[in-house]
Design brief:
3 helices; elongated; 2 strands; single chain; 8% strand; two-stranded antiparallel ribbon
Length: 72
């Protein structure tokens, strides 16, 4: 085994525990196939990843909007 291959094996990417076993591929018809439903993936992204296009002020307004709608 060359030294280059040894480095590849040592530098495995870190994976969040909730995404272990997640696999995504594109089949021969161009359709996206995953091992996790789109709803589950979106829920994970909403909880764990900050949306950079919203400023803190807009995020607070959206949060307040959702909370007020849930109370009604």
């Amino acid at each position: 085994m060359t030294q280059k291959n040894k480095k590849k094996n040592k530098n495995k990417p870190r994976i969040h525990d909730d995404l272990r076993g997640f696999n995504i591929r594109i089949d021969e018809f161009g359709q996206v196939k995953t091992t996790m439903s789109q709803e589950q993936l979106n829920q994970f992204l909403n909880e764990k990843v900050e949306d950079k296009k919203f400023s803190p002020r807009v995020r607070k307004q959206l949060k307040d909007l959702y909370i007020s709608n849930e109370e009604e």
